[in-house]
Please model this.
Amino acid sequence: MKNQWKGFTLLGIACLLLFGCGDTNLFKSVADDKSSDAKISAALEDINRGNYAAAIAALEQMDPNDPQVKKYLASAYIGATGFDTLKLIETAGNQADGTTNFSDGGIFTTVNDLLNLGNGTAEENMALLTKNIETAKKALDLLAPSTSDITSLSEEAQFQAGLYAAVQTIYITEFILEGQDPATLNETEITTRVNTNFAANSADLERSLSLVVAGRDTLINNFADPSESNDVQDSLDEFLRDIGYDDNELTASELSAYVINNK
Model:
């Protein structure tokens, strides 16, 4: 398994691992013989087409312990929140040097555009964020149950959970800001909202960020030479540093600084 992700871009890994990227013939060789594989193949087609509700309806009826079911059902849950992971990577992660970066200055603007948060009231935004947080939690619970030891999970599950946990972190942060676009808030307003709402959401943030760490560490463990890295690991590392979790602890002041620096 070593070096299986060496040289891949974040877009490439997300494409291969999470979505299939149009490879609707992935299970063609066995689809005619095994009904479960045929259903998974059909669900993958739905995911690629953005028909997340149909994919969820089919996959939820299948064996939840099947790794393929977990992978694609989790992907469908994230897709159902309206969050296009590949679009985020493309629009928010393109840096001048060609690397991909979760902590790009346009992260909140991109998320707001993807979720249409800019078109609703604060109350409507909060309702949407609440729904999306609950749906994303289903994906994380499926891949990395809170009762399990993260390190006991498969490498694919750890990475996928880590990537989706970064998404969940942004959702929770937007929720802490009470559904307001950070770009419309000044530093005092951001700090006030974070200080008011941080404690109630700190446990969820902690869980999400610990999964991001596990996803990053999975990539590190796949390099034979510890000095090697790729843009995926670098992106997750920078995300953790920018949000202040490089010491495995997040404070309200660190989250405030992250929002202020990235709005």
Notes: Residues 10-262 form one domain. The mean pLDDT is 77. The chain has one domain: 10-262.
